[in-house]
Design a protein that fits this description.
Helix content is 49%, strand content 15%. It contains nine helices and eight strands. A five-stranded parallel beta sheet has the order 2-3-1-4-8, sandwiched between helices. Strands 6-5-7 form a three-stranded antiparallel beta sheet. The protein binds BIS(adenosine)-5'-pentaphosphate and magnesium ion (MG). Magnesium ion binds next to helix 1. BIS(adenosine)-5'-pentaphosphate binds next to helix 1, helix 2, helix 3, helix 6 and strand 6.
Length: 218
């Protein structure tokens, strides 16, 4: 199974991706996580991406497309994957189409998570992320068992540099302008599914499971 997770920042893509990948035995590929890894390692890509990420702008398409091309050919993606945060522009979606053709693969689903703006600001300004594994928490809606520590590996929780209100609002504007046109792009291909991203985390996952199990393109 190969799917794309589309939705504004803070919609819950990372949160829901964890459940999907666990239950459907596929690998998550989050371009945001991958870029943060490059930053941590101090690679050239990480250094180039930093300025864009901290402003809430998109990293240039060419850098992202090269990164994806290098990643998707790895054996761990052979059984399927979930693309979280990619593609984010029409140019990236077209490059993905080309790559899928080369790899003789096709996409099964594009899941679109919808959440209102003010809820997003509340979610992201109180999000905390594990320094070791990247798992995300929310101080109120999804707190860790022990304050400041990841449930999985005990890693220290930190606040992402782009999770302040000003940058979050810019990320939302960038989403509206550059990423939203992809909804139309994938609706035309007949593989877009809409999910109400507001409400309890478990109930949202139930909606997703229903789509993935009912349409059975596993
Ligand atoms: P990226 O890391 O992809 O960030 P994003 O798209 O802004 O999405 P987030 O990770 O912020 O949100 P999410 O939907 O995963 O939500 P989460 O599950 O954590 O990208 C960061 C930057 O990298 C970009 O700005 C750009 O610069 C660059 N970049 C990345 N990909 C790129 C690309 N393809 N092209 C160009 N540049 C790229 O949930 C959010 C919070 O809400 C958490 O605290 C969570 O616990 C909580 N929560 C989740 N679900 C619920 C719920 N139902 N109710 C209450 N709270 C909830
Ligand atoms: Mg995420």
């Amino acid at each position: 199974m190969r799917l794309i997770f589309l939705g504004p920042p803070g919609a819950g893509k990372g949160t829901q991706a964890e459940f999907i990948c666990r239950d459907f035995h596929i690998k998550q590929l989050s371009t945001g996580d991958l870029l943060r890894f490059h930053r941590k390692q101090g690679t050239e890509l990480g250094r180039k991406a930093q300025q864009y990420m901290d402003r809430g702008e998109l990293v240039p398409d060419s850098l992202i497309i090269d990164m994806i091309k290098e990643e998707l050919v790895k054996p761990e993606y052979k059984n399927g994957y979930l693309l979280d945060g990619f593609p984010r522009t029409i140019a990236q979606a077209e490059a993905l189409d080309k790559l899928l053709e080369e790899l003789n693969q096709k996409l099964d689903y594009v899941l679109i998570l919808d959440v209102q703006t003010e809820e997003i600001v509340t979610r992201l300004t109180a999000r905390r992320t594990c320094k070791i594994c990247g798992k995300t928490y929310h101080l109120i809606f999804n707190p860790p068992k022990v304050d400041g520590k990841c449930d999985i590996d005990g890693g220290e929780l930190y606040q992402r540099t782009d999770d302040n209100e000003e940058t979050v609002r810019n990320r939302l504007a960038v989403y509206e302008k550059q990423t939203k046109p992809l909804i139309d792009f994938y609706t035309k291909k007949g593989i877009a599914y809409f999910i109400n991203g507001q409400g309890e985390i478990e109930k949202i996952y139930k909606q997703i499971q229903e789509i993935l199990l009912k349409t059975k393109r596993l």
